[in-house]
């Protein structure tokens, strides 16, 4: 299961300019059964995770990370910020105890001073820049400033008027902090740390932001968001927020500071008020995020300058206060069992070799039966899916309903298209799952069958002399007002589904 989950964060890299882009993970500790530091490191090594961010500088954790090569960002917790920001000596002691005592055995590469201080701890904002400078001075004194960067993570909410990105600016009330902070980052060659949460942007948009736009799902050109000032096209929320930060910095005349996203992710479970906090959406977001970062796509403002990113987070934290979703951002549970298996086919040459990773395309729960019927007819017709297993007397005929039959057809098309991005959509009535929908003698394409072999979806394309027409009369389920003419019209617009 370990390697199966991917070389997970494949902290392999895509080259961005002179630097390597990476995906790392945050390690929170609000678990009732927190694994020991050695267990945590064993999981990191098993998953080939090479970059981590700690929310503190726990000595046992730093000792466990020694001699692993894993690159570590340590943090000054917010409750220590006031003391460090008011005393150079306190800052030097913190660095001596939490950094100098552990390097070079532990590969500490960055220090995050506080977390979202401007929004979470505004009373400490006046000493924030002093804290960074004092920490940096201690590193200079130990000749460590060349290898360890100092910065502070910000909530993206400090950016106002964030769309279109070209109009974005930082909350002007924070200029007395942001201007000297940006000067510090620029002069020390550091980067802006930014927490980016498209989940919350989507939830708070009252339907303005489409779910697909938040999840990095492919959008048709007419659905892309366009910045009227720059004519740049945005296909996802993540890029738009990052570019908003770039534009906000340029508004203050800082154009050379790179961005590292210190937190992003999607919850896998929520309460009734959070219907989109699901396993499938969390899987989709993080899988697409990893692919996006490692493919060195960059953002529309800075193409091919990839944004290194830390996923929030390694473990589900059951002790976190707040809503159900707050406890369910993790990739693993406390036992090291993956909450879901990321579907990363097509993410790159290494990830594409993960042939054990099974993903399937199924009908979305609650989808309109009329839309399912139209998509089913397209898949079994123009989509060239071999749908004969759905005919009466054949293995996948039962259960005889449009949800079951469309699920088979959607998945067969998805597999024969090598799980290419955008081939599991069908105008929004299909979704990707890691649960094998096979049942009884009905073995779905892409499934590991009873003999342990994978059914190859590419073999499912019908031959030129196939007698299965996939016409509406074979697979149609009556819906009253949904007429044959409507089906034909939808089929003629088949491109809509892709």
UniProtKB/TrEMBL annotation:
Chief location of this protein within or outside the cell: membrane
Principal EC category: hydrolase
EC number of this enzyme: 3.2.1.39
Catalytic activity of the protein: Hydrolysis of (1->3)-beta-D-glucosidic linkages in (1->3)-beta-D-glucans
A Pfam match: X8
A GO cellular-component term linked to this record: side of membrane
Membrane topology classification: Lipid-anchor; GPI-anchor
Domain X8: 359-444
An example Gene Ontology molecular-function term: glucan endo-1,3-beta-D-glucosidase activity
InterPro entries xrefs: GH, Glyco_hydro_17, Glyco_hydro_17_plant, X8
Membrane-spanning residues: 475-497
Location(s), subcellular: Cell membrane
Signal peptide positions (record): 1-17
Keywords: Cell membrane, Disulfide bond, Glycoprotein, Glycosidase, GPI-anchor, Hydrolase, Lipoprotein, Membrane, Plant defense, Signal, Transmembrane, Transmembrane helix
Gene3D superfamilies associated with the record: 1.20.58.1040, Glycosidases (3.20.20.80)
SMART domains on file: X8
Protein name (database record): glucan endo-1,3-beta-D-glucosidase
Family to which this protein belongs: Belongs to the glycosyl hydrolase 17 family.
Organism of this sequence: Theobroma cacao
Protein's GO biological process: carbohydrate metabolic process; defense response
